[in-house]
Amino acid sequence: MSETPAVAVVRYEKIDDHVALVTLDRPEKRNAVNAAMAAQLDACVKRAERDPEVRAVILASSNDAAFCAGADLAEVAATGGQSLYTPDGGFAGFIAARRRKPWIAAATGAVLAGGMELCLACEMIVAAEDSRFGVPEVKRSLIAAEGGVTRLVKAAPRAVALELIATGDPIGARRAYEIGLVNRVVPREQVLQTALALARAIAANAPLAVQESLAVAKAAAVLGDDAARELAQASLQRLRGSEDYQEGPRAFLEKRAPVWKGR
């Protein structure tokens, strides 16, 4: 007898040739992460990475009131929480995933705890005007150990990040924008379209150059200047061997839009 397939709690779709949309879809549970969501989000990451046409991915929520409520505490109580992790992706199948393609969080409603950590794992965030961001774990004698306490201090000014971590109090979208935590703040009904516009702006560029540039930029945050420069030069050397490296200057000279091959 075959096993009953897991209910789909994460949806994957191609918006156009180069942008994929991944939607967390447990609205009745405020998109709390259970085993099925972790496994399916892990699969979505791998699907996007394998698809040579996908150049940017949007992570969205099916529940406007909450981007993601974090771990499903009922499942944590029943299983100890290990089912919410995957070998390649870590928590939610996403937090520790090795990705080269940029992800944009389309954040609505409450973006707290594990939901905040999912956003911090993305490269960019588009937020609804009424969304709230925070890591309230200390209020329950917990630690935001899946990126909250480690990525927040890199994404926001140190003093502000430490205040958010120590108080557990959330901030609004406008404040998040002021401190550089999010890229755009728009009315709720415009979040997805704004994220899509940002994704398409990224996808219009040479995909290998975007991936190499982002990888170097993130590594540079923890490397010294000399090591970061060496890493950038190694990335540039890899690009020189690609077809797109030749296409960029050729298209400029021929006064036409480049046709990127991703190779």
Helix and strand arrangement:
Layout: E1 10-14, E2 19-24, H1 35-50, E3 56-61, E4 66-68, H2 73-79, E5 85-86, E6 90-91, E7 103-107, E8 110-112, H3 114-121, E9 124-128, E10 132-134, H4 148-155, H5 158-167, E11 171-172, H6 173-178, E12 184-186, H7 191-203, H8 207-220, H9 225-240, H10 243-253
Note the run of SSEs as H and E: EEHEEHEEEEHEEHHEHEHHHH
The percentage of residues in β strands lies in 15-25%
Uncertain runs: none
Main sheet: strands, sense, barrel: 6 strands, mixed
How would you characterize the overall build of this protein?
The model has no long low-confidence stretch (mean pLDDT 92). β2, α1 (35-50) and β3 (56-61) form a beta-alpha-beta unit. It is globular, with a radius of gyration of 19 Å. Strands 1-2-3-7-9-12 form a 6-stranded mixed beta sheet, with helices on both faces. The chain has a 4-stranded mixed beta sheet with strand order 4-8-10-11. Strands 5-6 form a two-stranded antiparallel sheet. α3 packs across α4 (148-155), α4 (148-155) packs antiparallel against α5 and α8 (207-220) runs antiparallel to α9 (225-240). With 263 residues, it is of the alpha/beta class. The protein is 41% helix and 17% strand.
Task: Name the descriptors.
12 strands; 2-enoyl-CoA Hydratase, Chain A, domain 1; 6-stranded mixed sheet; 4-stranded mixed sheet; globular; 263 residues; alpha/beta
